[in-house]
Design brief:
The complex is a heterodimer of chains A (174) and B (52). Chain A has 174 residues and is mostly helical. Chain A has 8 helices and no strands. Chain B contains 2 helices and no strands. The N and C termini of chain B lie far apart (60 Å). The chains are: A mainly alpha (174), B mainly alpha (52).
Chain lengths: 174, 52
């Protein structure tokens, strides 16, 4: 999706479009590490946690690896990954806003979701649960934003097609 | 890349994001919470007389 936005927005500002795209693999790697750790590491630790002999050690490691555990490393990396995703969201949101009037509502929401992701990371650093709650809010705003953008892109394609058909009919008429 | 392709990819991403959101809510609401884990520790502590 962001590669598509890059192709679409590079005419507006090629440098910022490239900068935005660079953040996407950073997000992908960060989130992949977090989610794979929850699938492959946490279940084993939970087993150890339920064994009295190893429970104390497992609790400490779980505190570091369990994504939902407040103050865990994976929770921080997850927030960091979403903050990294926030950068292309902000940049492409602004570029889409500048590129076409039709993409302004979606662009604003995309940029807003990026800002909220960064606020959520600050919340993780400050230990503020209210600011950390901005992460799911950011996800919701992101979803609404890209849904609007998706529909608007399809609508603009139909308008382009109709416009080309009318031009072709006009040329044939001449 | 045509705007139709970008639109389709964007809506596909929106669909995946929705599915992820539903799964996230489901696992968050159904998985044992930290409080539940803490309760389990307390129960083991009561049973065996050690821990923490």
């Amino acid at each position: 999706m962001f590669a598509g936005y890059y192709a679409y927005c590079k005419e507006v500002d090629p440098l910022w479009a490239v900068i935005a795209l660079v953040f996407v693999p950073i997000y992908a790697v960060g989130n992949l590490v977090v989610y794979l750790s929850q699938v492959f590491v946490v279940p084993g630790l939970l087993d150890l946690f339920h064994t009295p002999e190893t429970a104390a050690v497992a609790e400490v490691i779980l505190g570091l690896t369990l994504h939902t555990w407040i103050g865990s490393i994976t929770g921080f990396v997850n927030g960091l990954a979403y903050a990294a995703l926030g950068m292309p969201s902000i940049i492409f949101g602004v570029l889409l806003y500048q590129k076409a009037h039709a993409h302004r509502p979606g662009g604003v929401l995309l940029a807003a979701s990026g800002v909220l992701s960064i606020i959520a990371l600050l919340g993780t650093g400050l230990g503020s649960s209210m600011l950390m709650f901005m992460s799911p809010v950011s996800g919701f705003v992101f979803l609404v934003g890209i849904s609007i953008l998706g529909v608007r892109f399809l609508q603009s394609f139909h308008k382009e097609t109709i416009s080309l058909s009318l031009d072709a009919a006009g040329t044939a008429g001449e | 890349m045509s705007t139709r392709t970008i639109g389709i990819i964007t809506l596909f991403t929106a669909t995946l994001t929705t599915l992820w959101g539903v799964m996230f809510l489901y696992t968050t609401l159904s998985a044992p919470t930290i409080q539940t884990l803490a309760d389990q520790v307390s129960a083991i502590e009561r049973q065996y007389g050690f821990f923490c």
